[in-house]
Amino acid sequence: MPEQSQSVTEDRTAAAEAPPAGGVSRRALLGTAGATGLVLGAAGAGVGYAAAPAQAVPLSSVGSDRAMFHGKHQPGITEGLQARGHLVAFDLAAGAGRAEAAALLRRWSTTAERLMAGDPMTQDDTDVARDAGPSALTVTFGFGNSFFTRTGLEKQRPSSLDPLPDFSSDHLDRSRSNGDLWVQIGADDALVAFHALRAIQKDAGTAAKVRWQMNGFNRTPGATAHPMTARNLMGQLDGTRNPKPTDSDFDRRIFVPASGSSDPAWMANGSYAVVRRIRMLLDDWEKLSLAAQENVIGRKKSNGAPLTGGTETTAMDLEKARADGEYVVPINAHARITRPDQNGGAAILRRPFSYHDGIDADGTPDAGLLFVCWQADPLRGFVPLQRKLDRGDALSQYIRHEASGLFAVPGGAAAGEYVGQRLLEG
């Protein structure tokens, strides 16, 4: 939740098309997911920041938003935050190998392309999403470290996929971490997202079984009077300092280059996703005064402005001191620790979902952040930020990292290809 933890909102720009008879149709344009502020999922700190919709969307048109399946990059990385999300990891079944994995990715890609276009499955559709449009549905696929051993492709495993180091703030449930295959599903309608989840699970058949699955949500597009950075469950703007696709170094930081990289060729234009289930200790957090909460983060809760003054986008003055000589932005404030210029330029693109999985027997809410961050190299992105947060982030005592995963997400599939084809048939 690093300062990148500043806004969990993503810039989403939608351009209105000529309205057809009977309704308004829209074309969702590229949005920013934001990854420069908090590393909530990163180091033990934070509650990640994502980007906010760039334009309020009339509810009547939400269903017509459509993301493209085929492209240079997979969908679900640079698009704006989605209202509903499902993260699910699979392990290949005993005896399943490279051939079965290739057939599965082919099925999954066919299904994802149809559903993202707003079409039903080719057979045995459940009709859950029959009345809805695409609703900005995205389906993203990735490979875990163990996938390469299971399929005999060890020589094609990127070194960037080496296991993440242990962090002192980790309290990880290994049964809800990692996995051979990872799927991220997002949409602006809960039924559309569930429909896709069910379709992906059914397509797995006997080739793979679910290892773990998590459900998340964000604010619905059009729910605010004007575009703004989204808030997380602590009430903080989350995603203010996320990198934007318009930044000159965005591609270099977020995507594996097509040439000149130490990664295998099949990862060209791909990215690495770090996934962390970060529980927010909301009962403890909500006991803090407003001033105390703002000192933990280093920003105003009302509008995300740095404590040193200005607006949400004003540069933070790290050297500004109070009359007593103490820094205005405390030395251990989350926003200070996660700034790229305090971490050798390390930056990640945060694109999280909030979650709430009920109330424990003692009345404690099981709620927090499904932190997902993207980078060209996790050893230059997530890891240094998390290590920094691990050493003294004020936010760390109000969060707990309970699950973790690292996945190699290949570039987008060209027309006629399935995701991962260059790996599995190379």
Primary descriptors:
single chain; 426 residues; alpha+beta; five-stranded antiparallel β-sheet; 9 helices; 20% strand; globular
Task: Give the SSE layout.
Layout: E1 9-12, E2 14-16, E3 26-28, E4 51-53, E5 84-92, H1 98-116, E6 138-143, H2 145-150, E7 181-187, H3 190-204, E8 208-217, H4 250-254, E9 271-280, H5 282-285, H6 290-297, H7 334-337, E10 349-350, E11 353-359, E12 365-375, H8 382-390, E13 399-409, H9 421-424
Parallel strand pairs: 1-4
Antiparallel strand pairs: 2-3, 5-7, 5-8, 6-7, 9-12, 9-13, 10-12, 11-12
Helix pairs in contact: 1-3
| SSE string, helices as H and strands as E | EEEEEHEHEHEHEHHHEEEHEH
Structural class: alpha+beta
Shape category: globular
Cα distance spanning the termini: 38 Å
- Largest sheet, described in full? 5 strands, antiparallel
β-strand number: 13
What is the mean pLDDT? 88
Q: Could you tell me the radius of gyration in angstroms?
A: 21 Å
- Parts with pLDDT < 50 across at least 5 consecutive residues: 2-54
